[in-house]
Each structure stands twice: as structure tokens, then as C-alpha cells.
Task: structure prediction
Amino acid sequence: MKGSLFIVTAASGTGKTSLVKQLIATTNDLAVSVSHTTRDPRPGEVDGQHYHFTDTTKFVEGIQAGEFLEHAQVFDNYYGTSRQSVDQQLNSGVDVILEIDWQGALQIKELYDDVTMIFYFAAKQSHFTSAPLLTRPRLSRGHRKTSGRRGNRDAAVRSF
Result:
């Protein structure tokens, strides 16, 4: 069985990383795709865990070779999602979640017909500190119904 592809996108600082961490912690067979970047690691970041850190020359060569599902240049740095890594996980039956900006989400939507896109909008900042992540009021009415091993994931996605 092939895995499903999910994209979580939101404005910076809205809590999408917290949402994705909670989904990973409470859901089986769900993996986060680790993006590639040319920026320097921040204190505490681990190569291969937070990002795959690479140099600009190698990244640009990867763009030209079609190695990225999506990529963007933000200020002086590149960011991108590995085509090989995502396809390998999906083909092995693992559901994959991408935490990317909306431009990247639209690039990937052009490549995958069956991607589930989650646009996360926060009502207000206090919403993130006053209620547990997966018991907040529902901000999106759309959801995918599935059965079996994905049921918990779908319930978590519906609840935010």
C-alpha cells in the first residue's frame, strides 16, 4: 500500500511546527520530510534531523538535475524538498508530511494529484498557549475519511 502525502503550510510563527510535532508523536506510520537548505545551522540543529545542510553549488546542481519536488530562495539561502526521499517513503507505505510554505505547496500540488493540503490559520496568538494543541476549536472543515491505521491521524487533523 502506498503512503499518503500531506502538506502543512502556514504563516511563520503560527504554530505549524508544534502541530506537526504533535501529529508525529501521536500517529503511527507518519514521517516528516526533512528539507534541504543552504543556510548555516542554528545552535542545536542537527544535520539530517532538522535540515539537510548543504552548500549553494550542490543545491543549485540538485535543482538543475530535478532532485527537488519544490524549492525556493529566501533571501540568500535555498530551501527544498527531496524528490527521492519523499517518493521512497511513500512507496514503502509511509505517510509523509511536509511542513513548507504555500508557494512550495502549490509546486507539489502540480506533481501529485492525491496530496492533502492543510492550510493552517490561527485565530489569534493566545490560542496557542491557552489550549492543548489537538483539542482546540476546529479551524478547517475539510478532512479526509479513512479507516484502519490512519484513523488516529485523521482524527488529529480534523480536530485542529
Q: What stands out?
A: The longest strand covers residues 68-74. Residues 133-160 have pLDDT under 50 and may be disordered.
